[in-house]
Amino acid sequence: MDKFALDLEQMEMRDSFSNLMVKRVYNILLIASKYDSFILEEDGRIDEKIFNEYTQLNLRYPPRFMQVVNEEAAIEQLQKHNFELIIFMPGDKSQQAFEGAKRIKKISPNVPIVMLTPFSREVSQYLVNADTSAIDYVFSWLGNTDLLLAIVKLIEDKMNVEEDVKSVGVQVIMLVEDSIRFYSSILPDLYKYVLEQSRNFATEALNAHHRTLRMRGRPKILLARSYEEATAIYKKYQDNMLGVISDVSFTRNGMKDSLAGQKLSEFLHQNDPVLPIIIDSSEASNKKLAEGPEMAFIQKGSKTFPQELRQLMTNLFGFGDFVFRDPKTGQEVARIHDLQELQKAIFSIPDDSLRYHFERNHASRWLFSRAMFPIGRFIKHIPIQAFTDTMPVRQMLFDAIVKYRKIKNEGVIAEFQKGRFDKYSN
CATH assignment of 21-155, given 3.90.1150.10, 2.60.120.1440, 3.40.50.2300, 2.60.120.560? Predict the structure, then answer.
C-alpha cells in the first residue's frame, strides 16, 4: 500500500496531446488512368468528397489531391512539389503500374505508395508472384471514398505510432489480415468506429481546443499481413496493445497457413493472458478457436459483420460505457459513462465485480481507450490479487481520479456544463 501511495504522489498526471500526430498527409499525388480520372470527376471531385468525409467525422487537415495521368507527369510533379502519399490507380494495367512504382520509389524512397486496383481474378493471380516491394499497400478499389480516408489514416498512424506511443502511451489496435479485398472493406468501418469513439470521449474535455487535442490520443490502427509482421508489431508495442482483430488463415513462413491465427493467438496470450482478441473467419467451425478468456468470434460474410464487430470492440476493447458485471451471473451491476461517474461509484461496486474487472485490466483498458493514459497506467499496475481487502484499492483509485481531474482543470478556461464540476475538480 505504501509503495502505491508513493507512486500516486510521484505520478505525472499531465498529458501532452499537442505533441501527438505531428506527421500528417497533406498532399497526395494521384496517378490515375484517363478512364479512372473521368470516373472520379463524374462521381464528383475526389478532394471535395474527402473533405465531406473529414467534416462528418469532425476531422481537421483534409489532404489535397494532385491528379496526373501517367508516370512521366508524376515524376515531373515529384521534382517540383512535396507529397506525403502517392496513390496509383492503374485500371487494368496493374503490371505496368508495379514497374512504374519501382521507378518512382527510387526518386522518392521515403514516400509511401498505395495501389488501388479493381479486383479481378487476373489481378489476384498476378499479385501472387508479383514483386510488390515498391508498394506499401494494395487495396481493392470499389469507388468508395471512405476507403481513401481509411488509407490516409492508416498511413498517418504508421508514421506517428512509434513517437506517440513513446510520448504518452497511445494505444494500438492490430488488424491481422492478408485478404486485400477483405481488409479493403473492413478498414473504413474500423476507422469510422474508432474516430466516432474518439469524438465521443473528447466531449469530456473542457473546451473545443482541448477536445480537438484529445482526439489525437485515439488508438492507432496497424495492419499486419503475415504472422511475422503481426508478431513484430506486437513485440514492439505489447505494453500498449489495446486489442487484436485476426483472421485464422494467413501467410506464415512465406506460405498460407490455415492455423496461423490460432498460433498467433497462442503466442499473444502466452505473453498477455488478458489481451482481447477478436477472431474472424469465413469458417464457422473456427469459432472454437475463440473460446478462451477475452476472446470472441465473428464470421466473415455475415450481413451484420460491421455491427457485430463494433459491438465486440465495445465489449472487449474498452469503448463506450464501462459496465461492471457480476462475474457469476454476467448481470450488470453498474454502468459508468465518464471519469466523474467512476469516482462516484468506486466505493459501491461489489468486491467480486471489482476484482473481476481489475484482474482482467478492464478498468485500465477503458481509460486507455479514452486517452487517459497516466491514470490508466497507474491502475494497470495495481495487483489487486495482493489485497485481501479492496478498500485500499478503491481509495487509491479515488485519489488518482481526483488528482487527475484537478490537474486537467488547472489553467483551463472551461465551457460551463451543469454537473461537470464538483468539489474535487479544482
Answer: 3.40.50.2300
